[in-house]
Amino acid sequence: MRLSxxxxxxxxxxxxxxxxxxxxSDAAGDKDRGADASTAxxxxxxxxxESGGASCLEGEWTTDIEALREATLAAPGIxxxxxxxxxTGESRVTFDGSAxxxxxxxxxxxxxxxxKGQEYxxxxxxxxTVVGQxxxxxADLVVTDVDVAGLTVTSRSIVDGEEIETPDVQDLEGSGxxxxxxxxxxxxxxxxxxxxxxxxxxxxSFVQILRR
Length: 212
Known about the structure:
It is a single chain. This protein is an alpha+beta fold and 212 residues long. Helix content is 22%, strand content 44%. The protein contains 5 helices and 9 strands, in the order ααααβαββββββββ. It has an 8-stranded antiparallel beta barrel. The relative contact order is 0.25.
């Protein structure tokens, strides 16, 4: 799955949590999402048709932290494990007509769950700035040339109170941290909803909500 940096937090925390738990694959299950892909794309196309257009994107937006928490719960296999999820801190996204700049200020996503008698805690902290180039039509937003040099991501995994070594979030293969992506969107004066487009995958639960 290749998603832009905007969607990394929920996916990275979910991926790290499953790596930490390792024995949780049976609980998570192997679900075939291909059957849902066409339905999800249809929903995304409907959203795009209702969008306020490319000019609506311009300006500064603030991430809806509660929506980000819900996106974390939607990471593959995570909801099946009945986790406790918290997201704190803040992030702001600015569109200036050509560049998309995301500023993170101590944004922390944490997942806690108990499995087979053990407590697992996985946390990812984001600080700094990410800049990407974008183009937009009335239907889609395409983000390219993402520069993450100004971003610091710190990950921690704790099992029964003992911290263990896990891959750094920025090293997770396939996480798409340095990639751009395509999104459908709806935009009004006060709310921007972004949905990633990933071929063969139902991404309808990964809606990012920004407000101003």
